[in-house]
Design brief:
This protein is of the alpha/beta class. It is built from 13 helices and 7 strands. The structure holds S-adenosylmethionine (SAM).
Length: about 350
C-alpha cells in the first residue's frame, strides 16, 4: 500500500465490496490471511453472525494484538494465528479449519506498519532500514542495501520496483554505503534520480517497494498461498484478493484466470496433454476498484484492485503424505455441503 499520513487505526479498503465478493453468510467459516487492524475480519464476523467463524492470520505480531482488541466482541468465534500465510495449508491442518466458505487476502501494509516508530517501511519517517513483517525473519532491508553487489541490487530494484532508473540508484547506494536509515536512503535515491523524474510519486517510492517485496518474499509467498487457498475452499467457496501494485495484481489475475480454464496446453498441441481441470469460476468479468468517494476519503485505497473467484470443482492433487491424504480426502467432494464433512472445529481466542 502506498505511504500516507499515519493513523492509529487502519481504514479497511473496499470493505463492502470484499464482504459482497466473499458472499459472507450466517454460520459461514472464513479465513482472513492478512488480518492487519482487523477491519475486514470484523465485517466478516458481523455478516456471518450468528455462528460464523474466522481464522485470522498475520505475520506481524503487532497486527495480531491490534486485531485482538478490534475483534473482542467476537472472541468466541475467532482464532488468531501469528504466522506467514505461506503456511496457510499447514495452519488449517493444525487447527482443523477447513473446508471454508471464503478466504481473503488484503495484501501489503497496514497503517500501523507505516507509523513513525514502525520498522522502516516508510521514507516519511526516519527509522532503521528493517522492513520485515515479522521480527523472526532474518533478512532486513539494511542487509540488502549494504551487502548485495551493485548489479544484483539494480536487478532487484528493477524487478520488484519496476524502476527504470535502477542502475543509477544502485550505483549511488553502493557509493554511499553504509546506509542505515530510511531518510538517508531516500536522500540518496533523490540525488540519483535528480531532475529526471517529474512523476506524482516520490522518487524513492519504487525502490522502497522493491526492498519490501524482497525482504518479505512477497511475490513468491503470494503465489504459493493462492494455490493452497484454492484447496481449502469448499464447493462454491470464494477467494477474494485485494492487491495494491501491478506485480501483485498480475500474479492474482493470471492465477485466477488459469484456474478458471480447463486445458492449459499451448494452442499448437492437437490433443490435451496437461489434464488441467478448472477449479474456479471468476466472479466478476472485470477487476473491481474503489469508488471515487473512497479514494477521496482514503487516499491509500487509490491503487487497490479486487479480484474474486468461486470454487467449482474437486481437487485432484496427488497427496504425498499421510496428513495430506486425510486432508484431501476430506475435501474431495462437495466440501461442507456433505454433513459428514462438517467437521467440528476447535475455536479459541488465542494467539497460536
Ligand atoms: C493491508 S493490511 C490488512 C488490513 C486489514 N484487511 C484490515 O482491514 O485492517 C496487510 C496485512 O497483511 C500482513 N501480511 C502481509 N504479507 C503477509 C504474509 N505473507 N503473511 C501474513 N501476513 C502478511 C501485513 O503484516 C499487514 O498487517
Amino acid at each position: 500500500m502506498g505511504a500516507g499520513m499515519p493513523s492509529s487505526s487502519h481504514v479497511p479498503v473496499m470493505l463492502e465490496e470484499a464482504v459482497q465478493a466473499l458472499a459472507v453468510q450466517p454460520g459461514g467459516r472464513y479465513i482472513d490471511c492478512t488480518l492487519g487492524g482487523g477491519g475486514h475480519a470484523r465485517a466478516i464476523l458481523e455478516h456471518s453472525a450468528p455462528g460464523g467463524q474466522l481464522l485470522g492470520i498475520d505475520a506481524d505480531p503487532r497486527a495480531i494484538e491490534a486485531a485482538r482488541t478490534v475483534l473482542q466482541d467476537y472472541r468466541q468465534s475467532v482464532l488468531l494465528v501469528n504466522d506467514n500465510f505461506v503456511n496457510l495449508q499447514a495452519i488449517c491442518l493444525k487447527y482443523d479449519f477447513f473446508p471454508v466458505h471464503g478466504i481473503l487476502f488484503d495484501l501489503g501494509l497496514s497503517s500501523l506498519q507505516l507509523e513513525p516508530e514502525a520498522r522502516g517501511f516508510s521514507f516519511q519517517y526516519d527509522a532503521p532500514l528493517d522492513m520485515r513483517f515479522s521480527p523472526e525473519q532474518k533478512l532486513t532491508a539494511a542487509d540488502i542495501v549494504n551487502e548485495y553487489p551493485e548489479e544484483e541490487l539494480s536487478r532487484l530494484i528493477r524487478k520488484y520496483g519496476e524502476e527504470i532508473l535502477c542502475r543509477q540508484i544502485a550505483r549511488r547506494i553502493v557509493q554511499a554505503r553504509p546506509v542505515q536509515t530510511t531518510k538517508q536512503l531516500a536522500d540518496i535515491i533523490e540525488k540519483a534520480v535528480g531532475g529526471r523524474r517529474n512523476a506524482k510519486i516520490h522518487p524513492a517510492t519504487r525502490t522502497f517497494q522493491a526492498l519490501r517485496i524482497a525482504v518479505n518474499g512477497e511475490l513468491e509467498n503470494l503465489e504459493s498461498a493462492l494455490k493452497q487457498a484454492v484447496g481449502l475452499l469448499g464447493f462454491e467457496g470464494r477467494l477474494v484478493v485485494i492487491s495494491y501494485h501491478s506485480l501483485e495484481d498480475r500474479i492474482v489475475k493470471q492465477y485466477l484466470q488459469q484456474e478458471a480454464r480447463g486445458c492449459v496446453c499451448p494452442p499448437n498441441i492437437p490433443a490435451c496433454v496437461c489434464g488441467h481441470k478448472a477449479q474456479l469460476r471468476l466472479v466478476n468479468r472485470h477487476v473491481i476498484i474503489p469508488s471515487p468517494e473512497e479514494t477521496q476519503r482514503n487516499p491509500r485505497s487509490r491503487s487497490a484492485k479486487l479480484r474474486a473467484a468461486e470454487r467449482i470443482a474437486i481437487t485432484e492433487d496427488c497427496p504425498d503424505s499421510e496428513d495430506e491424504l486425510d486432508f484431501f480426502a476430506s475435501l474431495s467432494s462437495n466440501g461442507w455441503r456433505r454433513p459428514s464433512l462438517l467437521r467440528k472445529i476447535r475455536v479459541a481466542f488465542a494467539t497460536a
